[in-house]
Amino acid sequence: MTPKLRLEHVRHEFTVRDPDRPRRAPARFTALEDVTLDIGAGEFLVLVGPSGCGKSTLLDLLGGLSRPSSGRILLDGSPVTGPGLDRGLVFQQYALLPWRTARGNVEFGLEAKRVARRERARRAREYLELVGLAGFEEHYPHELSGGMRQRVAIARSLAFDPEVLLMDEPFAALDAQTREALQDELLRIWTHTGKTVLFVTHSIDEAVYLGQRVAVMTSRPGRIKTVIDIGLDRGAGTDPRSDPVFGQYRHTVWTELRGEVTAAQRLERTAASRKDLPHG
Length: 280
Ligand SMILES: Nc1ncnc2c1ncn2[C@@H]1O[C@H](COP(=O)(O)OP(=O)(O)OP(=O)(O)O)[C@@H](O)[C@H]1O
Prior knowledge:
Elements: E1 5-16, E2 27-39, E3 44-48, H1 55-63, E4 70-75, E5 78-79, E6 87-90, H2 102-112, H3 117-130, H4 146-159, E7 164-168, H5 176-193, E8 196-200, H6 204-210, E9 213-217, E10 224-229, H7 244-274
Parallel strand pairs: 3-8, 3-9, 6-7, 7-8
Antiparallel strand pairs: 1-2, 1-4, 4-5, 9-10
Keywords: ATP-binding, Nucleotide-binding, Transport
Pfam families: ABC_tran
InterPro entries: AAA+_ATPase, ABC_transporter-like_ATP-bd, ABC_transporter-like_CS, ABC_transporter_ATP-bind, P-loop_NTPase
């Protein structure tokens, strides 16, 4: 079966100028190397890796915001050549339009898609309800809490019905309780809509809780080190966090990640002392 998303030997290089030596030819450095990964339709895959290993770069490539230096990225078997409404991006920062209400923000993407006004209003209401914000449609972002703003951002991404959700640390800025509530909300939405989700996080707990599979990346240049299947029972009425296997999966991910984090920290220290390479 054709995977929903396929990364084939993806490599990505950046060109960087040294501000202290502006006449010098720009240096090239490799952020991603030989990344190969398939993500099935309707799958929830979580990506973890040390700081600066290229997770956001990978999401940018999948979002079509930049092109790989080599290798291919395929969506339903066709190369990704730019951004598209088939992929919704959710970032750590809410990126809401402050002068628009929650409803206005959700309707924004639908306007670009030329959805009729009445249908826009209907869908905005439906998706705000789905993320638990019924009754807050006419509130402006500054009248909402951080968690609520992130819900609006998720509703906005869902409203134009993308097949794939690309989420870059979407809950990182939230307090622990809001974060856990939104994780549950996201799992509920995922079950309800069958979207394909690629979710980046620094939190091992979050990765194990959300992911059907967790892909661990190496330190720079980022590669896929291993992919771990998470076989947790997420049925109604269960609490996967209290399941003893939760701790085992957590330990497995942590063990894979630990050496990479140390290597990334070493790289950062060397870069900082040489000041010749950017660091994440
Ligand atoms: N536009 C750019 N130009 C040059 N270097 C860049 C650019 N964007 C990212 N980098 C570098 O590429 C590497 C990977 O960055 P990226 O943001 O993808 O990592 P990350 O894994 O998402 O990091 P973090 O977990 O800290 O968010 C880093 O060393 C970063 O400094």
